[in-house]
């Protein structure tokens, strides 16, 4: 496990990918985060193991301390028995020496275990701190990765639209539309001209009919018809 090496790779991904078009920064970052998740799991397990070992070692130290204390008390007790005449003095001194020897042995062992406990507790605290830092950084990087993915989608969509617009212009669609607009305008102008010509012809015809029309002749014919019907000469 090399957490710092992978952290370095994550940090370098965005920098190098911006320069080297052959590498995908998103894929590199995703791969780095997958590796870091594995490292985080392993680091958490290692912290738990070190913490448990520190607890066991401390419990063992307490037991050894108690053994050292017990043998010190036994040495005093046996000499008290010799003092009261319950045990032979020479025998009591021999047993007391043995008890004091075990007391010293367990005392030294207890001191050594104490140093181990201190070291293990220090290691567990450092591992916990580093694990928390790694977890916080992963949350930050995962959030940045989601933002990066969203930005990539937007940029790709924008690029595609702009590309289509550029291709449309290159294919002459804009100029074709301009020509079609000009042609339609010409046709509209021609239609308008025919309409005006037609209205002018109708106006002249109506004017001519109005000039040629004589209502007096029609009245006279109607009057003669009435007179004939009535027999008036």
From TrEMBL:
PANTHER family: MEMBRANE-ASSOCIATED PROTEIN VIPP1, CHLOROPLASTIC, PHAGE SHOCK PROTEIN A
Claim: Lipoprotein is one of the keywords in the record: no
Source taxonomy: Bacteria, Pseudomonadati, Bacteroidota, Cytophagia, Cytophagales
Keywords: Coiled coil
Superkingdom of this protein's organism: Bacteria
InterPro entries according to UniProt: PspA_VIPP1
Coiled coil: 26-53, 124-158
Record Pfam families: PspA_IM30
UniProt-recorded name of the protein: PspA/IM30 family protein
Family: Belongs to the PspA/Vipp/IM30 family.
């Amino acid at each position: 496990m090399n957490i710092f090496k992978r952290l370095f790779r994550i940090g370098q991904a965005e920098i190098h990918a911006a320069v080297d078009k052959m590498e995908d920064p998103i894929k590199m970052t995703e791969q780095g985060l997958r590796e870091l998740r594995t490292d985080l799991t392993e680091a958490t397990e290692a912290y738990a193991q070190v913490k448990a070992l520190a607890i066991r070692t401390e419990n063992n130290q307490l037991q050894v301390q108690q053994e050292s204390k017990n043998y010190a008390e036994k040495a005093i007790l046996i000499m008290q028995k010799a003092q009261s005449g319950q045990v032979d003095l020479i025998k009591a001194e021999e047993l007391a020496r043995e008890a004091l020897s075990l007391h010293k042995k367990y005392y030294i062992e207890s001191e050594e275990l104490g140093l181990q406990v201190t070291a293990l507790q220090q290691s567990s605290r450092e591992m916990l701190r580093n694990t928390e830092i790694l977890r916080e950084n992963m949350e930050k990087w995962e959030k940045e990765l989601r933002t990066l993915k969203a930005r990539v989608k937007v940029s790709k969509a924008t690029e595609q639209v702009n590309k289509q617009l550029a291709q449309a212009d290159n294919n002459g669609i804009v100029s074709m539309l301009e020509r079609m607009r000009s042609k339609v305008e010409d046709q509209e102008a021609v239609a308008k001209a025919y309409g005006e010509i037609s209205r002018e012809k109708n106006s002249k015809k109506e004017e001519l009919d109005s000039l040629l029309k004589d209502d007096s002749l029609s009245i006279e014919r109607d009057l003669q018809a009435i007179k004939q019907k009535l027999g008036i000469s």
